[in-house]
Design goal:
The protein has 6 helices and 2 strands. By secondary structure, the protein is mostly helical.
Length: 123
């Protein structure tokens, strides 16, 4: 990986890029949520930890429905449920929240570049 020279111009550019990403995140956190999925995506954008999002959602009293042997029951959310919501293409939620949460998730896993976050923040 090429090192970034720490010139004042480069530092100013990086600070401006981070400010752009921060402002986009703040805008997304202000979106009015319509369902549990939007809440989960907003929480992931804010804290970027599937484990902590699951704990938060559970503490608020939300439960996920599961079906086993034709019986429907509820249980607490686990981190895999949160990951599935972030990555799934079938969950009905705000498209902008979904796209940004998914990009952040992939960035945090090393699957996407900083420039991908910057492109989304610039939209």
């Amino acid at each position: 990986m090429k090192k970034l020279q720490l010139t004042l111009t480069n530092i100013d550019n990086r600070v401006e890029e981070l400010r752009l990403i921060k402002n986009k995140m703040l805008d997304l956190l202000d979106i009015e949520i319509d369902n549990i999925y939007d809440l989960i995506l907003q929480m992931y954008i804010e804290i970027q930890s599937v484990k902590l999002v699951a704990e938060y959602i559970n503490d608020k009293g939300f439960r996920i429905e599961t079906e086993f042997a034709d019986k429907v029951s509820t249980r607490k959310y686990i981190s895999n449920d949160i990951t599935e919501i972030i990555l799934s293409n079938t969950v009905e939620c705000n498209a902008e929240l979904k796209q940004y949460a998914k990009t952040l998730f992939n960035y945090n896993k090393g699957r996407q570049y900083f420039s991908d976050l910057l492109k989304l923040a610039s939209k």
